[in-house]
Amino acid sequence: MGTLQIRNLTFRYTNMEKPLFDNVTLKIDESWRLGLIGRNGRGKTTLLRLLQNQLTYSGTIETNLDFSYFPQPIQDPAQMTLNVAADLGQVADYETWKIERELARLHVDSGVLYRPFNTLSPGEQTKVLLAGMFADDTHFQLIDEPTNHLDQMGRTTVADYLRQKTGFILVSHDRHFLNQIIDHVISIDRANIAVYSGNYETWYTAKTRQDTLEQRENDQLKSEIKRLEKTAQQKEQWSNKAERGKYAGGKRKDSSDIDRGFVGHRAAKVMKRSVTLEKRTNNALNDKKKLLNNLEDMAALTLPYQEARTDQTLVTVADLVLQHNQEALNQPLSFTVKTGDRIALIGPNGAGKSTLIHALLDGQQSPLIRSGSAHIHNGVRVSYLPQDFANLSGTIKNFASEHEVAFDMLLATLRKLGFERQLFNDRIENMSMGQKRKLALARSLCESAQLYIWDEPLNYLDVITREQVQQVISEVRPTLLLVDHDRDFVNAVTTMKIRLEHIR
Protein backbone atom coordinates (compact mmCIF):
# COMPACT_ATOMS: atom_id res chain seq x y z
CA MET A 1 0.00 0.00 0.00
CA GLY A 2 1.39 3.40 -0.99
CA THR A 3 1.53 6.25 1.48
CA LEU A 4 2.48 9.90 1.50
CA GLN A 5 4.14 11.18 4.69
CA ILE A 6 4.89 14.89 5.12
CA ARG A 7 7.02 15.94 8.09
CA ASN A 8 7.83 19.50 9.19
CA LEU A 9 7.24 20.92 5.72
CA THR A 10 8.12 24.62 5.58
CA PHE A 11 7.93 26.77 2.47
CA ARG A 12 7.83 30.43 1.58
CA TYR A 13 8.12 32.37 -1.67
CA THR A 14 10.96 34.90 -1.71
CA ASN A 15 8.63 37.92 -1.51
CA MET A 16 6.77 36.59 1.56
CA GLU A 17 7.21 37.88 5.12
CA LYS A 18 5.82 34.67 6.69
CA PRO A 19 6.00 31.07 5.45
CA LEU A 20 3.09 29.85 3.38
CA PHE A 21 3.51 26.48 5.15
CA ASP A 22 5.20 26.22 8.54
CA ASN A 23 6.19 22.82 9.99
CA VAL A 24 3.32 20.95 8.34
CA THR A 25 3.01 17.26 9.18
CA LEU A 26 0.38 14.91 7.77
CA LYS A 27 -0.07 11.39 6.39
CA ILE A 28 -2.13 10.35 3.35
CA ASP A 29 -3.16 6.92 2.11
CA GLU A 30 -3.04 6.15 -1.62
CA SER A 31 -6.64 4.86 -1.65
CA TRP A 32 -8.20 8.12 -0.43
CA ARG A 33 -10.23 10.48 -2.60
CA LEU A 34 -9.05 13.76 -1.10
CA GLY A 35 -10.50 17.22 -1.53
CA LEU A 36 -7.98 20.05 -1.04
CA ILE A 37 -9.81 23.04 0.45
CA GLY A 38 -8.65 26.52 1.43
CA ARG A 39 -9.04 30.24 0.80
CA ASN A 40 -7.65 31.72 -2.41
CA GLY A 41 -3.92 32.33 -1.91
CA ARG A 42 -3.51 29.72 0.84
CA GLY A 43 -1.28 27.54 -1.34
CA LYS A 44 -3.41 24.72 -2.77
CA THR A 45 -1.64 24.67 -6.13
CA THR A 46 1.69 25.30 -4.36
CA LEU A 47 1.18 22.18 -2.25
CA LEU A 48 0.59 20.13 -5.41
CA ARG A 49 3.81 21.55 -6.88
CA LEU A 50 5.72 20.67 -3.70
CA LEU A 51 4.49 17.08 -3.93
CA GLN A 52 5.91 16.96 -7.46
CA ASN A 53 9.25 18.31 -6.20
CA GLN A 54 8.97 21.43 -8.36
CA LEU A 55 9.85 23.83 -5.53
CA THR A 56 12.59 23.94 -2.89
CA TYR A 57 11.41 23.40 0.68
CA SER A 58 12.62 22.34 4.11
CA GLY A 59 11.31 19.26 5.90
CA THR A 60 10.60 15.92 4.25
CA ILE A 61 8.07 14.48 1.82
CA GLU A 62 8.37 10.70 1.90
CA THR A 63 6.41 8.65 -0.63
CA ASN A 64 6.59 5.66 -2.94
CA LEU A 65 3.88 7.17 -5.16
CA ASP A 66 4.29 8.56 -8.68
CA PHE A 67 2.21 11.65 -9.42
CA SER A 68 0.32 12.89 -12.48
CA TYR A 69 -1.00 16.45 -12.64
CA PHE A 70 -4.11 17.97 -14.24
CA PRO A 71 -4.13 20.14 -16.26
CA GLN A 72 -0.92 19.40 -18.13
CA PRO A 73 0.16 22.10 -20.61
CA ILE A 74 -0.16 20.79 -24.16
CA GLN A 75 2.92 21.77 -26.17
CA ASP A 76 1.27 21.28 -29.56
CA PRO A 77 -2.52 21.79 -29.34
CA ALA A 78 -2.86 21.04 -33.05
CA GLN A 79 -1.64 17.44 -32.66
CA MET A 80 -3.98 14.47 -32.75
CA THR A 81 -5.99 14.05 -29.53
CA LEU A 82 -4.95 10.39 -29.31
CA ASN A 83 -1.31 11.46 -28.99
CA VAL A 84 -2.18 13.91 -26.22
CA ALA A 85 -4.05 11.29 -24.20
CA ALA A 86 -1.47 8.55 -24.84
CA ASP A 87 1.39 10.77 -23.67
CA LEU A 88 -0.46 11.63 -20.47
CA GLY A 89 -1.23 8.01 -19.64
CA GLN A 90 2.05 6.63 -20.99
CA VAL A 91 -0.06 4.30 -23.12
CA ALA A 92 1.53 2.20 -25.87
CA ASP A 93 -0.06 1.90 -29.33
CA TYR A 94 -1.52 -1.50 -28.51
CA GLU A 95 -3.15 -0.13 -25.34
CA THR A 96 -5.33 2.53 -26.96
CA TRP A 97 -8.33 0.58 -25.67
CA LYS A 98 -7.53 1.85 -22.16
CA ILE A 99 -8.10 5.44 -23.28
CA GLU A 100 -11.26 4.47 -25.16
CA ARG A 101 -12.53 2.69 -22.03
CA GLU A 102 -12.02 5.82 -19.91
CA LEU A 103 -13.66 8.07 -22.53
CA ALA A 104 -16.70 5.77 -22.61
CA ARG A 105 -17.01 6.14 -18.83
CA LEU A 106 -16.97 9.91 -19.36
CA HIS A 107 -19.64 9.65 -22.10
CA VAL A 108 -17.29 10.90 -24.82
CA ASP A 109 -17.27 9.30 -28.27
CA SER A 110 -13.88 7.76 -29.05
CA GLY A 111 -13.97 9.53 -32.41
CA VAL A 112 -12.56 12.64 -30.74
CA LEU A 113 -9.21 10.82 -30.49
CA TYR A 114 -8.75 11.26 -34.23
CA ARG A 115 -9.36 15.00 -34.28
CA PRO A 116 -6.82 17.77 -33.56
CA PHE A 117 -6.91 18.55 -29.84
CA ASN A 118 -7.53 22.26 -30.41
CA THR A 119 -10.77 21.54 -32.28
CA LEU A 120 -12.37 20.02 -29.18
CA SER A 121 -14.62 22.07 -26.92
CA PRO A 122 -13.14 23.04 -23.52
CA GLY A 123 -15.37 20.44 -21.85
CA GLU A 124 -14.22 17.71 -24.24
CA GLN A 125 -10.60 18.67 -23.67
CA THR A 126 -11.06 18.35 -19.89
CA LYS A 127 -12.54 14.88 -20.25
CA VAL A 128 -9.79 13.73 -22.65
CA LEU A 129 -7.09 14.89 -20.23
CA LEU A 130 -8.77 13.03 -17.35
CA ALA A 131 -9.18 9.90 -19.50
CA GLY A 132 -5.49 9.98 -20.43
CA MET A 133 -4.43 10.35 -16.79
CA PHE A 134 -6.60 7.53 -15.49
CA ALA A 135 -5.65 5.20 -18.34
CA ASP A 136 -2.49 4.78 -16.25
CA ASP A 137 -3.66 3.26 -12.97
CA THR A 138 -0.18 3.26 -11.40
CA HIS A 139 -0.09 7.01 -10.64
CA PHE A 140 -1.58 9.07 -7.84
CA GLN A 141 -3.50 11.88 -9.55
CA LEU A 142 -3.31 15.56 -8.60
CA ILE A 143 -6.38 17.22 -10.14
CA ASP A 144 -6.45 21.01 -10.04
CA GLU A 145 -9.76 22.75 -10.85
CA PRO A 146 -11.29 20.34 -13.40
CA THR A 147 -14.72 22.05 -13.40
CA ASN A 148 -13.74 25.46 -14.80
CA HIS A 149 -14.98 24.63 -18.32
CA LEU A 150 -17.79 22.20 -17.45
CA ASP A 151 -21.50 22.94 -17.44
CA GLN A 152 -23.75 21.28 -14.86
CA MET A 153 -24.26 18.15 -16.94
CA GLY A 154 -20.50 17.87 -17.53
CA ARG A 155 -19.83 18.28 -13.81
CA THR A 156 -22.29 15.52 -12.99
CA THR A 157 -20.60 13.20 -15.51
CA VAL A 158 -17.10 13.92 -14.17
CA ALA A 159 -18.29 13.58 -10.56
CA ASP A 160 -19.79 10.15 -11.32
CA TYR A 161 -16.54 9.17 -13.03
CA LEU A 162 -14.21 10.29 -10.22
CA ARG A 163 -16.40 8.67 -7.59
CA GLN A 164 -15.48 5.30 -9.11
CA LYS A 165 -11.76 6.03 -8.82
CA THR A 166 -9.37 5.94 -5.88
CA GLY A 167 -6.08 7.65 -5.15
CA PHE A 168 -6.21 11.35 -5.99
CA ILE A 169 -6.18 14.87 -4.57
CA LEU A 170 -8.87 17.10 -6.04
CA VAL A 171 -8.85 20.90 -5.92
CA SER A 172 -12.28 22.34 -6.60
CA HIS A 173 -14.39 25.19 -5.26
CA ASP A 174 -17.68 23.60 -6.35
CA ARG A 175 -19.21 22.38 -3.08
CA HIS A 176 -21.79 20.06 -4.66
CA PHE A 177 -19.11 18.54 -6.91
CA LEU A 178 -16.77 17.92 -3.97
CA ASN A 179 -19.54 16.52 -1.83
CA GLN A 180 -20.34 13.84 -4.41
CA ILE A 181 -16.78 12.59 -4.76
CA ILE A 182 -14.40 12.88 -1.85
CA ASP A 183 -14.02 10.75 1.28
CA HIS A 184 -11.31 12.87 2.98
CA VAL A 185 -10.49 16.57 3.18
CA ILE A 186 -7.13 18.33 3.41
CA SER A 187 -8.02 21.72 4.88
CA ILE A 188 -5.46 24.52 4.52
CA ASP A 189 -6.47 26.66 7.46
CA ARG A 190 -5.05 29.98 8.61
CA ALA A 191 -2.53 28.43 11.00
CA ASN A 192 -2.08 24.82 9.92
CA ILE A 193 -3.10 22.02 7.56
CA ALA A 194 -5.40 19.29 8.84
CA VAL A 195 -6.85 16.07 7.40
CA TYR A 196 -10.51 15.22 8.02
CA SER A 197 -12.40 12.02 7.25
CA GLY A 198 -15.60 12.54 5.27
CA ASN A 199 -16.90 14.68 2.41
CA TYR A 200 -17.22 18.45 2.09
CA GLU A 201 -20.40 18.64 4.14
CA THR A 202 -18.82 16.65 6.97
CA TRP A 203 -15.79 18.94 6.96
CA TYR A 204 -17.87 22.13 6.85
CA THR A 205 -20.04 20.99 9.77
CA ALA A 206 -16.97 20.08 11.86
CA LYS A 207 -15.19 23.30 10.91
CA THR A 208 -18.21 25.45 11.76
CA ARG A 209 -18.64 23.68 15.11
CA GLN A 210 -14.96 24.18 15.99
CA ASP A 211 -15.05 27.85 14.98
CA THR A 212 -18.19 28.40 17.09
CA LEU A 213 -16.60 26.77 20.14
CA GLU A 214 -13.40 28.81 19.76
CA GLN A 215 -15.38 32.03 19.30
CA ARG A 216 -17.41 31.30 22.44
CA GLU A 217 -14.29 30.53 24.47
CA ASN A 218 -12.63 33.63 23.06
CA ASP A 219 -15.57 35.79 24.18
CA GLN A 220 -15.39 34.27 27.68
CA LEU A 221 -11.66 34.92 27.87
CA LYS A 222 -12.14 38.52 26.74
CA SER A 223 -14.65 39.05 29.57
CA GLU A 224 -12.29 37.41 32.08
CA ILE A 225 -9.34 39.53 30.91
CA LYS A 226 -11.42 42.69 31.17
CA ARG A 227 -12.50 41.76 34.72
CA LEU A 228 -8.93 40.91 35.78
CA GLU A 229 -7.56 44.14 34.31
CA LYS A 230 -10.20 46.21 36.13
CA THR A 231 -9.50 44.45 39.45
CA ALA A 232 -5.76 44.88 39.00
CA GLN A 233 -6.20 48.58 38.27
CA GLN A 234 -8.29 49.07 41.42
CA LYS A 235 -5.74 47.20 43.56
CA GLU A 236 -2.88 49.21 42.09
CA GLN A 237 -4.69 52.51 42.76
CA TRP A 238 -5.31 51.55 46.43
CA SER A 239 -1.71 50.41 46.87
CA ASN A 240 -0.33 53.66 45.44
CA LYS A 241 -2.68 55.72 47.59
CA ALA A 242 -1.68 53.75 50.70
CA GLU A 243 2.00 54.19 50.02
CA ARG A 244 1.57 57.93 49.54
CA GLY A 245 -0.34 58.12 52.83
CA LYS A 246 2.34 56.15 54.66
CA TYR A 247 4.96 58.84 54.04
CA ALA A 248 2.74 61.91 54.04
CA GLY A 249 3.28 62.52 57.80
CA GLY A 250 -0.41 63.30 58.28
CA LYS A 251 -2.66 62.46 61.26
CA ARG A 252 -5.84 60.47 61.55
CA LYS A 253 -9.02 62.36 62.36
CA ASP A 254 -8.59 61.20 65.97
CA SER A 255 -5.13 62.79 65.84
CA SER A 256 -3.38 59.48 66.54
CA ASP A 257 -0.21 58.62 64.60
CA ILE A 258 -0.60 56.71 61.35
CA ASP A 259 0.40 53.09 61.68
CA ARG A 260 2.87 53.21 58.87
CA GLY A 261 3.84 49.58 59.42
CA PHE A 262 0.23 48.38 59.11
CA VAL A 263 -0.41 50.40 55.95
CA GLY A 264 2.87 49.27 54.42
CA HIS A 265 2.12 45.64 55.21
CA ARG A 266 -1.35 45.90 53.69
CA ALA A 267 -0.02 47.68 50.63
CA ALA A 268 2.56 44.93 50.18
CA LYS A 269 -0.20 42.31 50.30
CA VAL A 270 -2.16 44.28 47.70
CA MET A 271 0.91 44.52 45.50
CA LYS A 272 1.39 40.77 45.81
CA ARG A 273 -2.22 40.23 44.74
CA SER A 274 -1.65 42.61 41.83
CA VAL A 275 1.31 40.53 40.67
CA THR A 276 -0.88 37.40 40.89
CA LEU A 277 -3.65 39.15 38.95
CA GLU A 278 -1.15 40.27 36.32
CA LYS A 279 0.07 36.68 35.96
CA ARG A 280 -3.51 35.41 35.60
CA THR A 281 -4.22 38.12 33.02
CA ASN A 282 -1.12 37.19 31.02
CA ASN A 283 -2.10 33.51 31.15
CA ALA A 284 -5.57 34.39 29.88
CA LEU A 285 -4.05 36.47 27.07
CA ASN A 286 -1.78 33.59 26.09
CA ASP A 287 -4.78 31.24 26.05
CA LYS A 288 -6.63 33.74 23.88
CA LYS A 289 -3.76 33.86 21.39
CA LYS A 290 -4.03 30.11 20.93
CA LEU A 291 -7.67 30.50 19.96
CA LEU A 292 -9.04 31.76 16.65
CA ASN A 293 -5.82 30.91 14.80
CA ASN A 294 -7.85 28.87 12.33
CA LEU A 295 -11.12 30.80 12.54
CA GLU A 296 -12.12 31.71 8.99
CA ASP A 297 -13.30 35.30 8.82
CA MET A 298 -16.81 34.95 7.42
CA ALA A 299 -17.45 38.69 7.65
CA ALA A 300 -20.89 39.63 6.41
CA LEU A 301 -20.83 41.27 2.99
CA THR A 302 -23.04 44.23 2.11
CA LEU A 303 -24.81 45.17 -1.12
CA PRO A 304 -26.23 48.70 -1.73
CA TYR A 305 -29.26 47.38 -3.60
CA GLN A 306 -31.79 49.98 -4.80
CA GLU A 307 -35.13 48.27 -5.06
CA ALA A 308 -37.18 49.43 -8.03
CA ARG A 309 -40.96 49.86 -7.85
CA THR A 310 -42.78 46.67 -6.84
CA ASP A 311 -43.65 44.50 -9.85
CA GLN A 312 -41.76 46.83 -12.21
CA THR A 313 -40.52 45.00 -15.30
CA LEU A 314 -36.79 45.59 -15.70
CA VAL A 315 -35.96 43.18 -18.54
CA THR A 316 -38.05 41.83 -21.41
CA VAL A 317 -36.99 38.97 -23.69
CA ALA A 318 -39.47 37.96 -26.42
CA ASP A 319 -39.12 35.09 -28.92
CA LEU A 320 -35.36 35.57 -28.79
CA VAL A 321 -33.03 33.51 -30.98
CA LEU A 322 -29.32 34.25 -30.59
CA GLN A 323 -26.62 33.72 -33.16
CA HIS A 324 -22.87 33.14 -33.40
CA ASN A 325 -21.05 33.27 -36.75
CA GLN A 326 -24.45 33.60 -38.43
CA GLU A 327 -25.64 30.31 -36.92
CA ALA A 328 -28.64 30.14 -34.59
CA LEU A 329 -27.75 29.04 -31.04
CA ASN A 330 -31.00 28.38 -29.21
CA GLN A 331 -34.68 27.63 -29.38
CA PRO A 332 -36.88 30.78 -29.21
CA LEU A 333 -36.94 32.13 -25.65
CA SER A 334 -39.28 34.53 -23.82
CA PHE A 335 -39.24 35.79 -20.22
CA THR A 336 -39.31 38.94 -18.11
CA VAL A 337 -37.33 40.05 -15.06
CA LYS A 338 -39.36 41.95 -12.47
CA THR A 339 -38.38 43.60 -9.21
CA GLY A 340 -37.34 40.94 -6.71
CA ASP A 341 -36.73 38.19 -9.29
CA ARG A 342 -33.49 36.26 -8.99
CA ILE A 343 -33.20 34.31 -12.21
CA ALA A 344 -30.53 31.79 -13.22
CA LEU A 345 -29.91 31.11 -16.89
CA ILE A 346 -29.07 27.42 -17.18
CA GLY A 347 -28.30 25.05 -20.02
CA PRO A 348 -25.42 23.26 -21.73
CA ASN A 349 -22.23 25.01 -22.81
CA GLY A 350 -22.74 26.80 -26.11
CA ALA A 351 -26.50 27.29 -25.70
CA GLY A 352 -26.05 31.05 -25.47
CA LYS A 353 -26.29 31.96 -21.77
CA SER A 354 -23.44 34.49 -21.81
CA THR A 355 -24.40 35.55 -25.33
CA LEU A 356 -27.87 36.47 -24.06
CA ILE A 357 -26.35 38.70 -21.39
CA HIS A 358 -24.15 40.43 -23.98
CA ALA A 359 -27.20 40.92 -26.20
CA LEU A 360 -29.12 42.55 -23.34
CA LEU A 361 -26.25 44.91 -22.61
CA ASP A 362 -25.80 45.74 -26.32
CA GLY A 363 -29.47 46.62 -26.76
CA GLN A 364 -31.98 45.75 -29.44
CA GLN A 365 -29.55 46.42 -32.30
CA SER A 366 -27.11 43.80 -31.04
CA PRO A 367 -25.55 41.68 -33.83
CA LEU A 368 -25.98 38.69 -31.48
CA ILE A 369 -29.77 38.77 -31.97
CA ARG A 370 -30.95 36.68 -34.91
CA SER A 371 -34.65 37.21 -34.30
CA GLY A 372 -36.98 38.37 -31.54
CA SER A 373 -36.01 41.01 -29.00
CA ALA A 374 -34.15 41.48 -25.72
CA HIS A 375 -33.75 44.71 -23.82
CA ILE A 376 -33.23 46.26 -20.41
CA HIS A 377 -35.89 48.93 -19.82
CA ASN A 378 -34.93 52.59 -19.84
CA GLY A 379 -33.69 54.07 -16.59
CA VAL A 380 -32.82 50.76 -14.92
CA ARG A 381 -29.53 51.05 -13.05
CA VAL A 382 -27.41 47.94 -13.73
CA SER A 383 -24.30 46.48 -12.15
CA TYR A 384 -22.67 44.00 -14.54
CA LEU A 385 -20.07 41.43 -13.51
CA PRO A 386 -18.53 39.89 -16.64
CA GLN A 387 -17.22 36.36 -16.97
CA ASP A 388 -13.90 37.49 -18.43
CA PHE A 389 -11.58 39.30 -16.02
CA ALA A 390 -8.18 37.80 -16.89
CA ASN A 391 -6.94 40.99 -18.61
CA LEU A 392 -7.51 43.35 -15.67
CA SER A 393 -4.44 45.51 -15.02
CA GLY A 394 -3.19 48.58 -13.18
CA THR A 395 -3.56 49.45 -9.50
CA ILE A 396 -6.58 48.85 -7.28
CA LYS A 397 -6.90 52.61 -6.74
CA ASN A 398 -7.06 53.25 -10.49
CA PHE A 399 -9.52 50.36 -10.85
CA ALA A 400 -11.81 51.97 -8.25
CA SER A 401 -11.55 55.35 -9.96
CA GLU A 402 -12.24 53.88 -13.40
CA HIS A 403 -15.42 52.16 -12.16
CA GLU A 404 -16.48 55.10 -9.96
CA VAL A 405 -16.64 53.14 -6.72
CA ALA A 406 -15.41 54.44 -3.37
CA PHE A 407 -11.82 53.30 -2.86
CA ASP A 408 -12.19 52.79 0.91
CA MET A 409 -15.39 50.81 0.43
CA LEU A 410 -13.69 48.61 -2.18
CA LEU A 411 -10.75 47.88 0.13
CA ALA A 412 -13.09 47.07 3.03
CA THR A 413 -15.03 44.64 0.83
CA LEU A 414 -11.82 43.00 -0.37
CA ARG A 415 -10.72 42.47 3.25
CA LYS A 416 -14.05 40.77 3.98
CA LEU A 417 -13.39 38.50 0.99
CA GLY A 418 -10.08 37.36 2.52
CA PHE A 419 -7.83 39.70 0.52
CA GLU A 420 -4.51 40.19 2.32
CA ARG A 421 -3.55 43.82 2.99
CA GLN A 422 -0.14 43.45 1.33
CA LEU A 423 -1.93 42.82 -1.98
CA PHE A 424 -3.47 46.31 -1.95
CA ASN A 425 -0.30 47.78 -3.45
CA ASP A 426 0.27 45.01 -6.00
CA ARG A 427 -0.53 45.48 -9.66
CA ILE A 428 -3.65 43.64 -10.72
CA GLU A 429 -1.97 41.87 -13.65
CA ASN A 430 0.35 40.14 -11.16
CA MET A 431 -2.51 38.74 -9.09
CA SER A 432 -3.89 35.20 -9.27
CA MET A 433 -7.13 34.43 -11.09
CA GLY A 434 -8.93 34.04 -7.76
CA GLN A 435 -7.68 37.42 -6.55
CA LYS A 436 -8.71 39.11 -9.82
CA ARG A 437 -12.15 37.54 -9.56
CA LYS A 438 -12.53 38.81 -6.00
CA LEU A 439 -11.59 42.31 -7.15
CA ALA A 440 -14.18 42.25 -9.94
CA LEU A 441 -16.82 40.86 -7.57
CA ALA A 442 -16.00 43.44 -4.88
CA ARG A 443 -16.52 46.21 -7.43
CA SER A 444 -20.06 44.98 -8.17
CA LEU A 445 -20.77 44.52 -4.45
CA CYS A 446 -19.91 48.21 -3.98
CA GLU A 447 -22.20 49.43 -6.78
CA SER A 448 -25.69 50.70 -6.05
CA ALA A 449 -28.04 49.17 -8.61
CA GLN A 450 -31.62 48.07 -9.28
CA LEU A 451 -30.50 45.04 -11.30
CA TYR A 452 -27.36 42.92 -10.87
CA ILE A 453 -26.25 40.87 -13.89
CA TRP A 454 -23.55 38.37 -12.93
CA ASP A 455 -21.91 36.04 -15.46
CA GLU A 456 -20.25 33.11 -13.64
CA PRO A 457 -19.41 35.19 -10.53
CA LEU A 458 -18.05 32.21 -8.54
CA ASN A 459 -15.40 31.05 -11.00
CA TYR A 460 -12.04 30.64 -9.20
CA LEU A 461 -13.54 31.65 -5.82
CA ASP A 462 -12.84 29.51 -2.76
CA VAL A 463 -15.60 27.73 -0.83
CA ILE A 464 -15.57 30.24 2.06
CA THR A 465 -16.09 33.17 -0.32
CA ARG A 466 -18.91 31.27 -2.03
CA GLU A 467 -20.64 30.86 1.32
CA GLN A 468 -20.27 34.62 1.94
CA VAL A 469 -21.71 35.58 -1.46
CA GLN A 470 -24.58 33.13 -1.02
CA GLN A 471 -25.35 34.65 2.38
CA VAL A 472 -25.48 38.27 1.19
CA ILE A 473 -27.74 37.43 -1.78
CA SER A 474 -30.05 35.41 0.46
CA GLU A 475 -30.28 38.28 2.97
CA VAL A 476 -30.50 41.31 0.65
CA ARG A 477 -32.53 39.54 -2.08
CA PRO A 478 -31.61 41.89 -4.95
CA THR A 479 -33.05 41.61 -8.43
CA LEU A 480 -30.51 39.35 -10.12
CA LEU A 481 -29.90 37.76 -13.51
CA LEU A 482 -27.28 35.08 -13.08
CA VAL A 483 -25.22 32.53 -14.98
CA ASP A 484 -23.34 30.05 -12.81
CA HIS A 485 -22.65 26.30 -12.67
CA ASP A 486 -22.44 25.99 -8.87
CA ARG A 487 -25.62 23.99 -8.23
CA ASP A 488 -25.76 24.66 -4.49
CA PHE A 489 -25.43 28.41 -5.04
CA VAL A 490 -28.02 28.55 -7.81
CA ASN A 491 -30.52 26.49 -5.81
CA ALA A 492 -30.00 28.61 -2.69
CA VAL A 493 -30.29 32.14 -4.13
CA THR A 494 -32.59 32.05 -7.17
CA THR A 495 -36.36 32.28 -7.44
CA MET A 496 -36.51 30.91 -10.99
CA LYS A 497 -34.40 29.00 -13.52
CA ILE A 498 -34.68 29.57 -17.26
CA ARG A 499 -33.17 26.92 -19.50
CA LEU A 500 -31.64 27.67 -22.87
CA GLU A 501 -31.69 24.78 -25.34
CA HIS A 502 -29.56 24.18 -28.41
CA ILE A 503 -31.16 24.29 -31.86
CA ARG A 504 -31.88 20.63 -32.63
Automatic annotation (TrEMBL):
Lineage: superkingdom: Bacteria
Keywords of the record: ATP-binding, Nucleotide-binding
Entries under SUPFAM superfamilies matching the protein: P-loop containing nucleoside triphosphate hydrolases (SSF52540)
Gene Ontology terms for molecular function: ATP binding; ATP hydrolysis activity
Basic and acidic residues bias locations: 241-258
Record bears the keyword Nucleotide-binding: yes
Region annotation Disordered: where it falls in the sequence: 229-258
InterPro entries: AAA+_ATPase, ABC_transporter-like_ATP-bd, ABC_transporter-like_CS, ABCF_ATPase, P-loop_NTPase
Residue ranges of domain ABC transporter in the record: 4-215, 315-502
Residues in coiled coil: none
Gene3D superfamilies for the chain: P-loop containing nucleotide triphosphate hydrolases
PANTHER family: ABC TRANSPORTER ATP-BINDING SUBUNIT, DRUG RESISTANCE ABC TRANSPORTER,ATP-BINDING PROTEIN
NCBIfam families attached to this UniProt entry: ribo_prot_ABC_F (NF000355)
Protein name (database record): ABC-F type ribosomal protection protein
Gene it is expressed from: abc-f
